[in-house]
Structures are given as structure tokens and as C-alpha cells.
Amino acid sequence: MHRCFLVPEIVDLICYQIQNGDGSPSEWLEALARLARTCQAVHEPALNYLWRELRSLMPLVKCMPADLLKVTQGRFPRVELVRPIVPSDWPRFKENARRVRTFGLGYGVGELTMETYQALSMAAGGQALLPNIQELVWNFSAASFPYIHLLTGSNITTFSLSNPALIPYISTMSLLTSMNTRYPGLTHLSLTDFREEVEVAAISSAVCGWNHFRYLKVGALSNDALVHIAALPSLSHLHLQYRAVDRSHIKYPLSRNSCAFPAVRTMIISSPDFSFCTDLLRSMSPGSSLKNINFSTTKFVPSTSMEWTNVIQALHDICDHSALEHLSLRDNEEDLDQFEDQYPNVVGPKHLKPLLAFSRLTSISLRANGGFDLDDPMVNDMAVAWPRLTNLRVSSDFAPSPRATISALTSLAQHCPRIMTLTMAFNAEPASIPTPTSSPRVSNTQLKSLNVENSPISHAPSVAAFLSDIFPKIATVFVNENDNIDEETELEKAWGEVQNLLWVFASVRDHETSRRLRMLQ
């Protein structure tokens, strides 16, 4: 045995690299099993990693004697008991169960029969089957939900539960009302799709009983719960999901400059409109080091220009300009065809200019149902202000004829060398396409995906030639489809021709490069 295997830290790193490498789960599980059989020094560490994460109790139950079990094979295997559990059946189960740290029960991973759960519960005598579990993720599996208490002890720090419609209501509410006493050390909580008034009240009451949250993802919260989490010193990730119907009674409870959410770095808020997000930002201290912000509306009408102005100005005034890296501000993406007159709500350069102060942005996604009205100077300012961009999305289902032209893409190619995906409407008519010049060529090889929204176009070859020149590695060109028309529109045909020509141009370049290399050899 090599001496390096006597160093626990080295063995742990080897196991970690196997588990987090490029292989599939089945591949790294097999590799860990082989490693565990290599020598005594790596046996225990490899087994610890092998059993660290489970998606079902089936692997543990299969560690029990074969004469105890009947396994029904199929798409979703099932295990049932054929005799009572006796004390001598437990040793291998318990030996491996103590290694489990994460348990995620979900749809399609195989299940135990209810009789098996009942037998395990009786035989365990009230003890947790997974005594050292720290993370529990419970999705879809409804029938086994009443036995959730079998799995967990008081060491749980991460709990995730979703799809409550599939779980018996009384069982769900019983869990929600007792969570803070059942799991006192919780630091990460995710409860999605709990939005009924009685559920919100139960979750809000439970949330007020925890003081060490680092990650919180829930639906609506009461004002008392909002005030409580706003003062938590360790909360770094906040995700709230309000519905459009909450608009009549939702009001952010804290005043300006309340020093709220001092440690939050990621903030994801879905609210009826941007005013809730604006008020929340204003309650924080100026210079807050937010890195990731995602605000979206759930109302079924476009956000007004004033709402956009207010939330963007609040971002500018509160967030550290050198900290913010990812920003998403998005209107509801539901079908809004009934709103014909969108243009009074258009978002233009004057509304967006405060965002230019955030020089470290790498990803920006903006969606205004009232439309955007950008021009070439504004696109150039955006490109110069955000040189680290990898993804830029400026989208809308409604917009006036774009003032920004295809020529503006040159600024993005020149000043954003890392940009990989771009969504933006622009005028691609022949008059807007720059003529070739003798100036140094601008070429960006990182952009792979271009979404042109509903950009007007009439001459595909000239557009394709220009795009191929500045973005020679474009692989896909998307256009907004008209869901009400079965046949391909003229706009879709034109941009489809652009994509085909881009592929041809790329192929020709590759052949030319290969030919030149052969000539140099």
C-alpha cells in the first residue's frame, strides 16, 4: 500500500473527486465500491462516500437478509417483506444507515410497500432509521409521507418539500405546525407551492421559530415572519413566491433604511408587481453586497414605466455597484394578447441608464411586457459598461419597431468578449447593415446563440454575411414564434435562411482553414 493512503485528507480528496467527477452516478458509485474493496485504509472513507446520498430506502433494505425480502422488478421496483423483522436482520442496515447524510425521495426511484414501512417503524422502536442525516428532500412521494418521522433525527439542517397537492392535507399541516420543534437546527428550508392562507400562516409561524437560516425558499409570508427573517444575521439566500391574487393584501412591513437582510447575497422574489421588491430594497442599507437578483411580477398586466424606474433606481441606490453579477427583472410571461395598447409602458434608455453603474454584471435578463425602445447609442453604452457579460436578454412580446439596428451588435462583439447568448430585437433591414470598411475587423468567437425576437428583415444573405463576420461561431438563431399561426411566417422563413447561411459560411471557413494548414505543412 502506498504511504499516501495513510493520510486521511488525501483519501478523502480521492473519494470526493470520484463522486464529483465527470462520470454518471452509476459510474462513480461503481468506482467507490471498487475503491472500498482495495485495502483497509480506504475501506471506511469509500463506504462513507458510497452511502452519503440516497434517493430511496431500497438499497438499505436490500442489505437485510435475502430471505426477508421479495423484490418486484419493473420500471419502479418495489420491496415487500415475506416474514417479520427480527433483531439479527438489522446489523448491515444500521452499519450503512449511519453513513447517510442526504436523503432525497422522489418520483421514479423505486418504493417500499406500506406494510414494509409499517414493519420498519415497529421494529425500529421509535429510533430514526437514518440517525445522522443532515439533508432531507421530499418530492412527489405521497404514500410514504406519513413515515417521514422514521428517517430523521434532530440533526437535520436542510429540509425541502414540494408538491403538497400530492400529500394528504392533514399530514402536511401537522408537519408544518411542528417543524421548528422537530428540526431546531434547520439552516436551509425550501417549501414550494404552499400558498393557501392556512399554509402560509403555519409556515410563517414556524419560520419565526428559527434564528439561523442561511437559505430560505417559501411562498408568501406574514408580516411578522418578514420582519423576523429581515433581522437574521446569517441569511444569505432568500426566495419568496407571491401570487397575483396576493396583491390586495401584500404590503412590505419595514420602512426605509431599516438595515434589513444584512447578509443576503442572492434574492429571488416573485411578487404581484415591482413595488414590493422596491420597498424591500429600500429597507436595506446602501452598499448592500447583493450578487444575484431575480425579481419577477405575477400580475397579468404590464408593469408601468414608473414601476420600472422605481425598482431600477432602488437597485442603483442600494446595491454595491462592484458586487452585483447576475440581474433578472421580468414581467409575467403569461399570454397578454388582450392588452393592445402597450406602448405607453415602453421601457427606454432613460429608464435603464442607472443599471450602467454595475460594472461586474455577467448575466442580465430583462423582460418588459410594455416593450423596450433601445437605440444604437444605448446598446453601445450597455456594451461598454458591462464588459464581463456572458448572457444578455432584452425581451418583450410587444414592442414598437426597434430603433436599435443590427449595426449595434458590433459594440457587443467588440466590448463584451465573453458574451455567449444574446436576445434582443433590432432593425435588420438592408439600410441598417454597415458597409464593409478598411478599419480593423471586429470578431467575437464566443457568441453561440442569438434570439432576434421579431426583428424585421428583408434580405437574409446580407444579414447572414454581417453576422458571420462579427460572430463567426453562431450555432443557432431563434425568432419569436407566432403560436396562433400553424404555418411558418415570412419572418421565421427569413431568419431560418439566415441560420442556414451561417452554417454554410462556418463550414467554408473551416475548409479554408484546413486547406491553409495543409499548405503550410
UniProtKB/TrEMBL annotation:
Top-level division of the source organism's lineage: Eukaryota
Gene3D superfamilies: Ribonuclease Inhibitor
Record-given protein name: F-box domain-containing protein
Source organism of the structure: Hypsizygus marmoreus (White beech mushroom)
Taxonomic lineage: Eukaryota, Fungi, Dikarya, Basidiomycota, Agaricomycotina
